[in-house]
């Protein structure tokens, strides 16, 4: 991918999808991700603590923080105001894409059907989230879509796990995968950051193979 922010986000080909319920956990989580050699986070806008967490994490120069579960322009704007360096959306919204582009922030919208992918191509997008990947056909679907949409790269998310990570990463059209398995919300809530560091390190090593 030519965008420098996304190149950094995808350096290990894994994007941790995080849910933070208490923004006091944001900086320790940032430290845990950095210690696990996975210095990137897609903070989902699913909790009241998400924006404050993005703001806190964006102060860390050695971590790249983005926002996930961006459903509309208001959320996109709030996330960018908080310091999100990239946006991820489960679906394709022309308005969200425009809001991100206005500020030069890379956006990865979701698309899973040929019609959605063609709509994304019409918007000039070549990098798409594929969510929920397991439900929408997983590796087999990505291979079939890849043979039709040669110029499109995907970030499958939703159902990616240590058990199928290698299979997803082996698909030529897959730029990176997203997933929450290395950042369990229960571990974040419990302040069990050593576990998160360990899970990240394991995932990074697995993706490098
Ligand atoms: C997402 O927002 O991309 C998903 O919630 C991540 O899916 P997972 O929990 O199955 O990894």
From TrEMBL:
Family annotation (Gene3D superfamilies): Aldolase class I
Keyword Ligase: no
UniProt-recorded Gene Ontology molecular function terms: lyase activity
SUPFAM superfamilies: Aldolase (SSF51569)
Keywords, alphabetical: Carbohydrate metabolism, Lyase
Homology family: Belongs to the KHG/KDPG aldolase family.
Protein name as it appears in the record: Keto-deoxy-phosphogluconate aldolase
């Amino acid at each position: 991918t030519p965008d420098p922010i996304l190149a950094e986000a995808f350096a290990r080909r894994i994007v941790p999808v995080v849910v933070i319920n208490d923004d006091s956990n944001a900086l320790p989580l940032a430290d845990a991700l950095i210690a696990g050699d996975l210095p990137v986070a897609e903070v989902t806008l699913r909790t009241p603590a998400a924006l404050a967490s993005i703001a806190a994490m964006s102060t860390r120069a050695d971590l790249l923080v983005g926002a996930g579960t961006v459903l509309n322009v208001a959320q996109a704007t709030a996330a960018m105001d908080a310091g999100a360096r990239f946006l991820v959306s489960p679906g394709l919204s022309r308005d969200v894409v425009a809001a991100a582009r206005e500020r030069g922030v890379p956006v990865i919208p979701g698309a899973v059907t040929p019609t959605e992918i063609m709509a994304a191509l019409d918007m000039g997008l070549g990098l798409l989230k594929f969510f929920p990947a397991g439900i929408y056909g997983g590796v087999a679907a990505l291979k079939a879509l890849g043979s039709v949409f040669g110029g499109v790269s995907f970030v499958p998310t939703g159902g990616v796990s240590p058990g199928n990570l290698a299979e997803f990463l082996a698909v030529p059209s897959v730029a990176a995968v997203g997933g929450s398995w290395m950042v369990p919300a229960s571990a974040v809530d419990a302040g069990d950051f050593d576990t998160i560091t360990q899970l990240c390190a394991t995932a990074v090593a697995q993706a490098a193979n």
